[in-house]
Batch of 3 targets.
Target 1
Amino acid sequence: QVLLVESGGGLVQAGGSLRLSCAASTRTLRNYYMGWFRQASGKEREFVGAFSWTAGNTYYADSVKGRFTISKVNAQKTVYLQMNSLQPEDTAVYYCAAKIGSYHYHRRDEYAYWGQGTQVTVSS
């Protein structure tokens, strides 16, 4: 069982930045992947990025490469999503998720645990 809590969303102007956090409540995150997904109004939930606690690797969707960065604080079991150069098309509810580790980090249906989501709105 993994409980996830996201925070850090808000309203920013195009070109601005936000940092989202995802705090995990579990005994250990070893062998887990932490994923970030987003869902814009009227669209399907899509992969944004992921972090492997075991390997320390990060992965990003092409749409956010170079703009978004995932980092973590081990002691706090927290993963961050730093979002820079935000554009209106980034507007969505952002979710963090967790799954037992595998290389299928980009697949939504692989993740068993989800946070409540945090709204990110980017104005033009």
Target 2
Amino acid sequence: QVQLVESGGGLVQAGGSLRLSCTASRSIISINRMGWYYQTPGKQRELVAEITSGGSLWYADSVKGRFTVSRDNAKNTLYLQMNSLKSEDTAVYYCNAKIRDESLIQWNYWGQGTQVTVSS
């Protein structure tokens, strides 16, 4: 059980940068998988970047080399550094945590979303 709150979205020109933050209501040290998803009208929510408790990373092809996901366990916070932003990056970005219960069933937890708009 965890609550997630995103911040850092906004309006930025193409080529600019933003840093999204996701602060959890409890320690994230034991959360195996945390990541960022984005969603635009007419499309399903898609995984952008993910990091495990062991430091393994995954990025969607569309953001490789431009975005960096990281976690600060001391601050219970997940970050997404977004550089060289493109208009195609415009979307609502959601923080996600995957947590297993005592029966080892994995549950998804979501933040409320933060809007990122990239102008041409």
Target 3
Amino acid sequence: QVYLVESGGGLVQPGESLKLSCAASGSILNMNAMGWFRQPPGKEREVVATITSGGSPDYADSVKGRFTISKDNAKNTVYLQMNSLKPEDTAVYYCGARLTYRYSYWGQGTRVTVSS
């Protein structure tokens, strides 16, 4: 079992920044990747950014150049630095963990609201 806890969400104005954190615990030695996903109001969950155990990142086109995913192996934590936030970034953001081929474990989510 893998346990994920997100934090760092909040209410910000367009153009501002937030940094999300996801702390992992449990059977984490088998994780080969972690990622951030989001679910806007009334829409389906979508991938935002992923990072492999080797440190290779990937981003959705909608966030390229604005968001940065990183991890601290010593703290078992993955981060999502979100800059130049837009109203369309408003969503509940979830942290996910991949153990084999699929993202199978999820955190409780942290809400990000971008509004003027």
